[in-house]
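Extended Data, record Galactose oxidase
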Amino acid sequence: MQLLYNNKVVIFDRTDFGASNLSLPAGKCRYNDEALGVDCTAHSILYDILSNTYRPLMVQTDVWCSSGAVDSNGTLIQTGGYHAGDHKIRVFSPCYDDDVNCDWTELPQNLTVQRWYSSDHLLPDGRVIIVGGRRAFSYEFFPKSFNNNDNDVFDLPFLKETTDPKEENNLYPFLYVLPDGNLYIFANRRSIILDYVNNKVVKEFPVIPGEKRSYPATGSSVMLPLRLNSPKNLTVEVMICGGAWGGAYIEAMEGVFWPASSTCGRMRITDPDPKWVMEDMPLGRVMPDMLLLPTGDVIILNGAGNGTAGWENAVDPVLNPVLYKTNEPDHDKRFIVLNPSTIPRMYHSSATLLPDGRILVGGSNPHVRYNFTGVKYPTELSLEAFSPPYLATQYAHLSPIIMAVEGQILSYGQKFSITFNLGYPGEELMVSMIAPSFTTHSFGMNQRLLFLDILEIERVSVFGYNVTVFAPPSKNIAPPGYYMVFVVHQGVPSHSFWVRMQ
């Protein structure tokens, strides 16, 4: 899934399981399919949040277990996949109408090596870095590097070092661009800082205690919010939750499902001597999704209580989302178990934050084929929306209503004001800015939350207010592109407003 700035979500799945239940528009078919001679069905959709409708899209090659990032223009850059798709680069640009020509485009340019189970991140210079993948212990860029070498691929021995025999446990590495412009990379139980400009590892961190955290021992991760009231002394903290013990994948293949990890680790990577601080979740999870909420808290949802990622490799779906209160000083009060879904969301499920503060959740296909009956956990085609506690009716009067934002295109460090209405003002007010994630396999790539520095708040009418804030100071802190801006009042966010940093 990827939310775009026109409030539509691109969703897609593999192409080589045969026909889907959704037809492409008349005259559109694929003739290069591995499963069918001719395939005139859709394996991607564009979901319109506001109208709750969708239309079919057409991908040319297999996008199974691929990766992606939205570039500075708001175009989804989607990379790799399976078999005929493993070297491919595809793009999807936002559009505001139902023009059938608004669809996926597969570029003639290819990736240098196959990328299957890799991770992507938008960089401060506007390129996308593509890291790792199965049997791909390297990284590359799109567009290619600036030194005119058309086949730039850079070895990263760290990825080979973190591969476990028979299990791997280092796929879909967690990536974060840091305020100094370098890249934090986590795989298996280890993490480093990579200077990708000079192809040099500049720091290695302590090993996280406990279980493995990367696919197929799949945990999840976020970089906790960056608070920009003192950008020269930013604290950068990474959080990783869930996973599975080494050997769990092999055992699951034999029908033995070990309990999933119930631990989370937080590490301030900007500390002089960084260390993991471990906490216990109320519910163990493998294959969780972790998403940053506009309040700065974290929602943890989806996944299973036993086993690992992979076909038929997990049991006991965890139906209750958990809210993690990031800044709660009492460790015993940080995790709050929330109301459950009734739908198991296991392997190949996904989730993303929506502009109104809800979480869109969809999918689950833990089988070799699409099995809708006769199995313990059927293939799931539904979408549902989860409303965090801040959307409860009793808090509606606390929610700001954004009326206007001064300038939708922002320069770095620029002052700008947000006009909003508020019926019952309190003292606690924050402005958060979120880059939406490309979510697959329990990791929200490019997810990023910034709390903007507030200059002043003034009352302009009975219910009207202006808050003046500073845009992020640099491309390292906020890579160029589109962000959702929320006004958060006493822990209750507004509907967001899209801005573009450039």
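Summary. The CA atoms of residues 486 and 496 lie 5 Å apart.
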